[in-house]
Amino acid sequence: MSTAPIFRRVALIGFGLIGGSIARAARAEGLASEIVTTARSEKTRARVAELGIVDRVLESNAEAVQDADLVILCIPVGACGPVAQEIAPFLKAGAIVSDVGSVKGAIVREMAPHLPQGVHFVPAHPVAGTEHSGPDSGFAELFINRWCILTPPDGTDPAAVEALRAFWAALGARVEIMTPDHHDLVLAITSHLPHLIAYTIVGTADELAQVTSSEVIKFSAGGFRDFTRIAASDPTMWRDVFLNNKEAVLEMLGTFNEDLSKLTRAIRRNDGEALFEHFTRTRAIRRGIVEIGQDSAAPDFGRPHPPLKKAE
Ligand code: NAP
Q1: Strands 96-99 and 120-121: what pairing?
Q2: Which atom of ligand 1 is nearest to the CA of 79?
Q3: Alpha carbons 293 and 25: distance in angstroms, whole number
Q4: Which structural domains are found in the chain, ordered by start?
Q5: Is the pTM of this model over 0.70?
Q6: Residue range 74-121, pLDDT digits in tens
Q7: Are strands 124-127 and 147-150 parallel, antiparallel or unpaired?
């Protein structure tokens, strides 16, 4: 335990990749005197109890939030509105209510109307994740050096924003504050569109008639493999992201389609100069991401390779 508790009781609604990672990191850093969690299914609750990371596992969201100083909804975006309505009457005055949803405008629209006066609403989005889900998928280091974006509505108590900022910083994250709409536009291009493209390309490959699916899998290291990791992400989560960030995704998709048409034309017209110029520009973006420590500089993403066998 390396830090003094920031909150007395933290209630996590949902215990999957994100809820489970928050619980593990908060426990390791001693950020809460007590961590209470709920999960929708009996199966997940039983597994969370078995893992022994939190102090109490409850079936009732209402019971979990009672007397909690910080409540974080770690469930799919589409479920946040109904759960906010369910817990509202049981929230303690002065409690901070937050979430981890990958979309922010819809979260504010769906949750805020239910929350009572005297409760501080500070939505959050940790920009960190993997393609895995469920109670066993989380790990304490998930948020280290990743960004967590807070989108407090105008007029939110600065002390509540600061307390949540300190919590995420103690989990290892770098914290930035922006409006929900700006968040949704930025994430539409950096996260939502890449996922849509990955889902599309993997689906297209799966439906090809001229190339067998065993060939697609066999020769996947040609680039396809890296899309398959993203396209293995949780279907419920991503359905909710696209349904709840429709406008921003459609706007980015329009721009993307125009750019794809330009590259298609360059290929058709044998315009090597246009292709070379475009690929040079995109390569520099990759370098920038590595330089600010948001990805590994190791060749092949640091994947282990078996040693080359010496010829007999
Ligand atoms: P996850 O591993 O699938 O866990 C989801 C949790 O929510 C589980 O405890 C599940 O309970 C519960 N749940 C599912 N549907 C529910 C419903 N209708 N009502 C109440 N509880 C429900 O998901 P996750 O990856 O942690 O994602 C949770 C949130 O984090 C999402 O809003 C997502 O947008 C956001 N997020 C995800 C990532 C990522 O990379 N995965 C990154 C940043 C933010 P059961 O296990 O009992 O079904």
Answers
A1: parallel
A2: 18
A3: 21
A4: 7-178 (3.40.50.720), 182-294 (1.10.3660.10)
A5: yes
A6: 999 999 999 999 999 999 999 999 999 999 999 999 999 999 999 999
A7: antiparallel
